[in-house]
Amino acid sequence: MCGIAGYVGPRNAVDVVFDQLKRLEYRGYDSAGLAYVDEGRLHVLKKAGKLTGLGSLLAESKPSAHTAIAHSRWATHGGPTDLNAHPHHDQDAQISVIHNGIIENYLELKSDLVSRGHTFHSETDTEVAAHVIGEEYRDGVELVEAVRRAVAKLRGAFAFVVVSSAEPGTIVCARNASPLIVGFGEGESMVASDIPALLPYTRRVAILENDMVAKVTVDAIKFYSLEGKPIEPKPFDVDWDAVAAEKGGFEHFMIKEVHEQPEVVHQCLAGRVEGDHVKLDGLFSDHVWHEIDRINIIACGTAYHAGLMGKWMFERMLQLPVDVFYSSEFRYGEPLLSPRSLAIFVSQSGETADSLAALRLCKARRIRTLGVVNVVGSSIARDCDRVLYTQAGPEISVASTKAYTAQVLVLLLLVLHIAQVREMPGVRVPEIVQDLRGFAESMRQSLDLEPQVKALAERFKDSKMVFFLGRNADAHVALEAALKLKEIAYIPTQECPAGELKHGPLALVEPGVLAVFGATDPDTQDKLLSNMKEVQARGGTVVAVTTNEASAWADEMDTVLRVASCETKALAALSTIVPLQLLAYHLANLRGCEIDQPRNLAKSVTVE
After folding, report:
1. Do the Cβ atoms of 604 and 379 come closer than 8 Å?
2. Strands 386-389 and 368-373
3. How far apart are CA 229 and CA 352, in angstroms?
4. What CATH number labels 3-244?
5. String of b and e for 115-146 (b: at least 16 CB within 10 Å)?
6. How distant is the alpha carbon of residue 465 from its chain centre?
7. CATH number belonging to domain 247-437
8. pTM
9. Assigned CATH for 448-595
10. Catalytic center residues
11. Contact (CB, 8 A) for 170 and 143
12. Which residue among 55, 216, 581, 595 is the one 20 to 30 A from 543 at the CA level?
C-alpha cells in the first residue's frame, strides 16, 4: 500500500530514493518523507500531500548523502499530516524508521514507553515501533540486532526499514506480511516495496520472507531469521523491461495497460496451450482433481469479479459447485469447508491482507490451496500449495485492467485442464483452445471501438448515474465495469443482473441516466431486449455491447458497440470489458479526475 525506498552506495542516495518514490506513486499515498545520514548526523525531510511538496524541500536544501531511506504514506493511524508522515525517530533521535503495515499492540507499548518518560510527536503506530527499536539500540548492540530484538515485541503486519546515525553505511530491514524487496547492484544496494522502483538500477533482486531481517550495505546484503541465524538469500533476475513500468507515450498508466491487453493474452497463454490441449505445469497430481468436490474462490475487488467469472465457468463446464467469497468476509463467516475442497486465492499483488488471513485459515483447516497471482514471489504465491501466475507484467495504475483479463483467462485454462483430467464429455476443449488462440485479435478489435467510446463519453460526462447490466457471464463483467467507473470517474453506478431491474433498480431510471447492457449471449438476448425497452420507456439511454453477429434488435438501441463474435461465451463476454474500461477512462479524463491514483484508494491493500 505505502511506498518504501532505500539506497546505500556511491550515488547521491537522496536523489535515488526520491526517484524510487516517484516510481511507486501508483501505490497511492497522502504524504511522503525521507531520512539520510550525512557526517554522522541523521536528517529528516517530510511533507503531507504529493511528492511535489517533498521535492520542493529537496530543491531548497539540496541534500547529498550515500545512505538514505524514503517513504510514501497512505494514512491509517493518524491523519495525513506533516507530523504523521514517515520517517519517525526514536527517543534519542539516533535512528529513523519507515514502515508499511499496522502494529496491533502499539497502544500497550506506547503506554509503557510513556510511563518511562518517552515523548511522542505523532499519532502513528510507526513512531512507537521506532522507540521500541531505539530502546534496544541503547544496549550498544548493532542496528540489525536491535531491530531483530524489537520485532519480537511487535504484533501485526509490517515491513520496516531503519537507518542510524551511528552506522552510516547500513540499512536494516525486517518483514512480516507486508512486501519488501532488496536489490543487488554493482557496488551499491537498495530496498523497495515493489520491483518497478528497482528496475532502473538493477534486475537482480531478492524478496524478504516473513519473519526475516536483512542488513543492507554497499558490499553485501545479509539475511537473518528472527532468532539471528544467517539465511542464504535467493536472488533472481527480473525479466521485465524497465520501460514496462513507464507510460510508454500514453497519457496515463491505465490507458497504457488497457491497450496492453492483447499482448497480455499472448503472455498468459504462453507455454500453456499446445496443439488443441491445455498444459499447466506445477499443479496437483491428476488424482487430486478427481477427489475435489467443491471449490472456494476467495478474492477482493477486481479479483473477486474475476472469481465470479470463474464460478460461472467451473459450474457450467465442470458441474463442480463453487462458492465465491470476499476475502474480508471469509474468515468471519465460519465457512463450511469440505476436506476435499480446493481454495483458490485470486490477487494481482499477492499481498492483500484479507486474502492472506483467509489463506491462513484454509491452511489451518488443511484445505488444499491454489494461488492465481501476478507478482512472482509474493506472499500468496509462496504460501499456497500451488500457484498459477497470470503473467500480466507490472500493473501500475491503481484501477486494475489487464490483471482482470489475465485472471479470467487463467481460471478458464484451469477449467480446461481439469476437464482434460476428468475427461468431461461436454467440454469441447479443442474448440475452446482455438478460440483462445484467436482471443488476442478479439481484444485488438475491441480496442478499435475507442473512437466510438470516446464520443459516448463526451455525451455522458456529466451523467449522475450509470447502470451496468447483463445476464449470465455478461452480468459478471458488468460488475467489473461498474467498479472501474466508480474508482476513477467517481460516478455512482447501479449494477446487477438485468433480470433484477424490475425488483427495485428501475425506480432510479429517469431522463439523463445511461444504461450499459452486456449482450453477447444469444440465449438471453430476447429477455435482455425487454429490459432495454423498460429503460428506454422511462427516458434512459441504452448502450448495447454485443457481438458482430447480433440480430436486428440491436439497431433499436441508442448506441451499439460490437465486439468480435466468439463461440466460447466466457470469452465473448470478456472481450466487452475493453470498451467498458475505455468508457470509464475517457469519462474520468473528461471530468478531470486523477486517473492513475484515484482518491482514497491504493493499489495493494496490505492492511485489514
Report:
1. no
2. parallel
3. 29
4. 3.60.20.10
5. eeebebebebbbbbbbbbbbbbbeeeeebbbb
6. 27
7. 3.40.50.10490
8. 0.75
9. 3.40.50.10490
10. 2, 603
11. yes
12. 595
Tracing cell 524508521 back to the chain, one arrives at 97
How far out from the chain centre does Cα 486 lie? Answer: 17
Q: At 403, which amino acid appears?
A: A
DSSP β-bridge partners for residue 158:
101, 177
> What is the C-alpha separation between 199 and 183, in angstroms, rounded?
9
Question: Cα dist. 361→178, 257, 327 in Å?
Answer: 18, 34, 11
pLDDT at 240 over 70: no
3-state secondary structure of 401: coil
> Residue 32: phi, psi to the nearest 5?
-150, 155
DSSP assignment string, 282-295: T---HHHHHH--EE
Mean pLDDT computed over 505-521: 93
CB atoms within 10 A of CB 363: 15
- How many Å apart are CA 496 and CA 505, to the nearest integer? 9
Strand order in the sheet with 559-563: 493-497, 466-470, 514-519, 541-547, 559-563
Burial of residue 581, with CB atoms counted within 10 A of its CB: 0-12 exposed, 13-18 middle, 19 or more buried: buried
Please give the pLDDT value at position 554.
Answer: 76
Grid coordinates representing 336 are 463450511
Q: Do domains 3-244 and 448-595 have the same CATH topology?
A: no
Domain residues of the chain, as ranges? Answer: 3-244, 247-437, 448-595
Q: In the prediction, which pLDDT does 482 show?
A: 98
Locate 157 and state its grid cell: 503486519
